[in-house]
Amino acid sequence: EVQMEESGGGLIQPGGSLRLSCSTSGFPFRGYRMNWVRQAPGKGLEWVSYISSSGSTKHYADSVKGRFTISRDNAKNSLYLQMNSLRTDDTAVYYCARELEYGGPFDDWGQGTLVTVST
Amino acid sequence: HSALTQPASVSGSPGQSTTISCTGTSSDVGGYNFVSWYQQHPGKAPKLIIYDVSNRPPGVSNRFSGSKSGNTASLTISGLQAEDEADYYCKSYTSNNTRYVVFGGGTKVTVL
């Protein structure tokens, strides 16, 4: 059974940093592309970042480019999102999502972790 | 401002059919068959229900179907059931070099 669990969310002040983790099991993690998607309270889904199976290719949404860094550790079956210079509009539930093919569907999602950026 | 345009809400009575549109451009929906649809119940993670325009993953009801014409993709729910009440999002690959994939703004389906 595929399992993906995010962690690392919490309350952080504007300008602060957080590192999210997505721990996976039940599938060959090193063979899959992965993404982060976020959802602000009461709002829609917003794609945040992509990483290839090897970690050599990364993409970022304009809204986080230069502030967020995606990475992975295939030996630990884990995905990460380092978030720096956090702003209040980064407040959202952050989901990790497994991708079936480049540009293709996200076929499995974690349950999400809430990040709240506030004073 | 979402890159893909969806109606904010649609509704229907149990047993009826309803269709949700997802309008993009030739750089996304119109240019590729990488359109997928997701169902999200309140407080839950999104669930993939349609991929590559019209394919259903294993275990997804055949009451859900997808299609595409030009720059607009559509999701049709046939035989509406109470459990179909949820938010639905389309997603597409985009060749816009500042993005990778884009979501629609989401559509709330209400079963009357």
Overview of the structural elements:
- The complex is a heterodimer of chains A (119) and B (112).
- Chain A has 119 residues and is mostly beta strands.
- Chain A has strands at 3-7, 10-12, 18-25, 33-39, 45-51, 58-60, 68-73, 78-83, 92-99, 106-109, 113-117.
- Helix content of chain A is 0%, strand content 52%.
- In chain A, the strands form 2 sheets. In chain A, strands 2, 4, 5, 6, 9, 10 and 11 form a 7-stranded mixed beta sheet that branches.
- In chain A, β9 and β10 form a beta hairpin.
- The mean pLDDT of chain A is 97.
- With 112 residues, chain B is an all-beta fold.
- Helices cover 0% and strands 43% of the residues of chain B.
- In chain B, the strands form 2 sheets. In chain B, strands 1, 3, 4, 7, 8 and 9 form a 6-stranded mixed beta sheet that branches. A 3-stranded antiparallel beta sheet of chain B has the order 2-6-5, with no helix packed on it.
- Chain B is globular.
- The interface between A and B is medium-sized, with 24 and 27 residues.
Which structural class do you get from the secondary structure elements of chain B?
mainly beta
The average pLDDT score of chain B comes to: 95
Q: What is the string of helix and strand elements of chain A? A: EEEEEEEEEEE
So what's the oligomer here?
Answer: heterodimer
- Computed over alpha carbons, the radius of gyration of chain A is 13 Å
Beginning-to-end CA distance, first to last residue of chain A: 40 Å
Helix/strand class of chain A? mainly beta
Please write the string of helix (H) and strand (E) elements of chain B.
Answer: EEEEEEEEE
| Proportion in helices of chain A | under 10%
| Low-confidence parts of chain A | none
The 3D shape of chain A can be described as globular
Please tally the β strands of chain B and state the result. 9
